[in-house]
Write a structure and sequence with these properties.
It is built from one helix and 13 strands; from the N terminus they run ββαβββββββββββ. By secondary structure, the protein is an all-beta fold.
């Protein structure tokens, strides 16, 4: 939509259409439905597993996530408080919400929330680097989502068979850098920008409400 502030704008067709592919053109996107078109072709959703950072494996059919219900957004979050992110899908047909439980083998993890002082309160924009048994895992806290969705303001580290994070470096939006060592896995922690050393970490107990 090249003219989002002008709902009456009509854009000319930029080229030829291929009817064999079902292509169509509407000069004003607000008239798509009025002119009898539908942007959804009910393509099946896809789920891919990252195979060690080298390739992706298609697990759509095996996991049952390949719904044709016109999916509009998806959020990965720990809905069951198990330390293993699940998936929730919002769709326009076939039921409004689908929740897919994570039933993969249990592994170690660390969930991190931030409490900013000079930075924004949630630490949005912070960059976290976990050093675990010789490897680095980098995450950035940007809880952006898709259409009508937003992920929690948390960072999740999957640690596989490692029971601790050797070093966790937090680079705050304010420019402050915190380096924390020897953090035990399998828990949810809050890191406070205004405090130093091990005392900057609070552990969240299951069911606890995190104050903003």
């Amino acid at each position: 939509m090249s003219q989002p502030c002008n709902r009456n704008c009509e854009i000319k067709l930029p080229g030829s259409l291929d009817p064999k592919l079902g292509e169509f053109w509407v000069g004003n996107p607000w008239k798509i439905i009025k002119e009898g078109h539908n942007l959804s072709a009910f393509e099946r959703n896809r789920l891919y597993f990252n195979a060690g950072g080298r390739e992706f494996l298609d697990a759509s059919h095996l996991s049952g996530t390949d719904s044709d219900g016109d999916g509009r957004s998806v959020v990965a979050a720990d809905f069951r408080n198990t330390g293993m992110p699940d998936l929730i899908v919002r769709q326009a047909g076939g039921g409004p919400l689908l929740l897919f439980e994570n039933r993969l083998p249990v592994a170690h993890h660390l969930t991190v929330s931030l409490r900013g002082e000079k930075s924004n309160r949630r630490g949005i924009g912070a960059r976290l680097t976990a050093e675990v048994n010789g490897r680095k895992i980098v995450r950035e806290l940007f809880p952006a989502g898709g259409y009508f969705s937003q992920a929690p303001s948390q960072v999740h580290f999957g640690l596989a068979g490692d029971a601790k994070v050797d070093t966790l470096t937090v680079r705050w939006p304010s420019g402050r850098v915190q380096v924390l060592t020897g953090i035990a896995a399998d828990r949810h922690v809050i890191i406070d920008e205004s405090r130093d050393g091990p005392d900057s970490i609070d552990t969240v107990t299951p069911g606890q409400t995190i104050k903003p």
